[in-house]
Amino acid sequence: xxxxxxxxxxxALLGWVVRNSVPSALxxxxxxxxxxxxSSRLGRRHLASDRLHFSRWMxxxxxxxxxxxxxxxxxxxxxxLSLAKVCRHCGVSRKTGHALVRRAEKEGWxxxxxxxxxxxAVALHDRWVSRLVxxxxxxxxAGAAKLRWHLQQKFRLGPWxxxxxxxxxxxxxxxxxxxxxxxxxxxxxxxxxRPALAPNDVWTIDFKxxxxxxxxxxxxxxxxxxxxxxxxxxxxxxxxxxxxxxxxILTRLFRRYGVPRAIRTDNGxxxxxxxxxxxxxxxxxxxxxxIEVVHGRPGCPQDNAAHEQMHQVLQAxxxxxAAPTVAAQQRRFDRWREKYNRRRPHExxxxxxxxxxxxxxxxxxxxxxxxxxxxxELKRTDPRGRLSWRNRPRLIGAAFGRxxxxxxxxxxxxxxxxxxxxxxGELHAGDHTAIRAVRCRHSKPGNKAAPSLQxxxxxxxxxxx
Length: 465
Fold this sequence. Notes:
Blueprint: H1 2-20, H2 23-33, H3 37-49, H4 65-78, H5 83-90, H6 94-107, H7 119-138, H8 144-154, H9 163-172, E1 188-191, E2 202-207, E3 211-212, E4 218-219, E5 221-226, E6 232-237, H10 243-257, E7 262-265, H11 281-288, E8 292-295, H12 305-318, H13 326-342, E9 377-380, E10 386-389, E11 392-395, E12 404-411, E13 414-419, E14 422-428, E15 436-437, E16 439-442, H14 453-457
Parallel strand pairs: 1-16, 2-7, 7-8
Antiparallel strand pairs: 2-5, 3-4, 5-6, 9-12, 10-11, 12-13, 13-14, 14-15
Helix pairs in contact: 1-2, 1-3, 2-4, 5-6, 7-8, 8-9
């Protein structure tokens, strides 16, 4: 008799849930009904009779505490059953049920988790926070440890908060600034200046400062120049200065003039990044083509002074005033480049134009194939430039996404990371996040790094036949 009455209670309760469409309550009750096989069968019969579709709430998810409390209150206030029966079906004690009902009548439907702080902790906070703030204003450069000492000297009656507690209070009050975490330093390398003794030894690439055409559109030319013979390879307006667009333009340039031995550029995007050597994704592509990447010193545009002087001439002869449209401005760039290369003599070339000296590079556009020693461990990075080593993700650099690198173990807990012949840095087992990237110290370049062909050969080059 008791069992039949209990089954009837299950059926009535579950039927009310189905008719009122309470998904959160359904999740709580189904879990409790599964403990009783007969009541589960009875519950499934009621579910079928009310034509409930489980697809509305499948797959099952974890019920939050606030949702479970709300479902309990809905069942108690709307089903007409006693509190003891609702508590029994939901799997909670009557003491907990009475506490939830009293709290809901006082606070409302949304029953969030209360703070777990003890009364002693609350009293300690209320007693010392105002004193700590006043003490910090008196000693603005003192940290938590020294402020605690000052509080002990001024207020002899304890207990006093701990140093870490005072630090948390200062941080929550906005009286401390978080220190910037600097990456740990890796091995130091001296990067010598690259001299340009022949055509295609060094190309210089940069963006000229943008200006507006006559119709108000922005003009941003990308320029490339051979450092040794002053031959202007490219003056092209770029609608977008992204790495993908620049790579597309440079691919066409390499197919026309060949691949240089080195490229000198500044540290700004898209040529510079924040990883090892300051490389960007574009620089990694150059390295794979066998091109040496030479960055100038940060904040020193004079390291690429010859290229900047060429920009000044380009600005004076093509953009003062600017053309009416972007297409007309590009035609000016093309005519100026033809004149600069074929009809403008240079003193450093023995009063010959650059076309008399320049020859395309014989190096083809193809990726280099690198071979590592057999005892080195090869790993491929993920799209974000990370790899797994010693069961931890290690950041190599965003520019090295989906690249194959080699690890050379130099110590049981230290490994060097190589990208082809280039040492990127070191991985230490004690570190938790990123590589210790190499530190590059640039030798100061001078005008002698790119001597004129006349001074090198003793006479000017003969013009083309």
